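Quick one:
INPUT:
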């Protein structure tokens, strides 16, 4: 039986701390580079198979093309991680998770907006405000919460709703 609380709301008490958000950013920066290296290795492997077109292309791209490629790699990294797991590499390590205001899983559209907003200039510093929510959180209407606090709050709210109701 998959019962969810109708009254659940994400509150600042379960937000991930600024320290965890900072650690997430550093780890995800490394994750982005690892992802980039894997893509480079795949292009190199394809070249070893005799298909040198992609390698030739990437060897001669302009600065603008390089910037666009980095944007695509970053969007892909965050989008795939958060759409499948609700977490990036950093969030796995810090035990945080991305949710909507009602605690549900964000849609692919929410995650795409969230990923795209990361490329707003100076966005990396936006989580330093009072609530510790970055622009990529507020513009996508998502929240990064401490996973343990989130689960405890969700279970507590569900148990409170079930008081006095017959078990099925």
């Amino acid at each position: 039986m998959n019962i969810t609380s109708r009254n659940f709301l994400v509150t600042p008490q379960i937000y991930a701390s600024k320290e965890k958000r900072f650690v997430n950013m550093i780890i995800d920066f490394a994750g982005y580079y690892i992802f980039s290296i894997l893509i480079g290795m795949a292009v190199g492997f394809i070249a070893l198979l005799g298909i040198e077109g992609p390698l030739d292309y990437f060897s001669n791209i302009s600065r603008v093309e390089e910037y666009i490629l980095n944007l695509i790699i970053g969007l892909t990294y965050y989008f795939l991680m958060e759409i499948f797991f609700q977490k990036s590499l950093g969030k796995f390590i810090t035990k945080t998770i991305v949710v909507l205001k009602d605690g549900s899983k964000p849609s692919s559209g929410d995650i795409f907006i969230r990923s795209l907003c990361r490329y707003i200039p100076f966005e990396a510093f936006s989580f330093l405000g009072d609530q510790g929510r970055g622009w990529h959180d507020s513009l996508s209407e998502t929240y990064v919460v401490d996973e343990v606090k989130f689960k405890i709050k969700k279970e507590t709210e569900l148990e409170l709703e079930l008081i006095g109701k017959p078990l099925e």
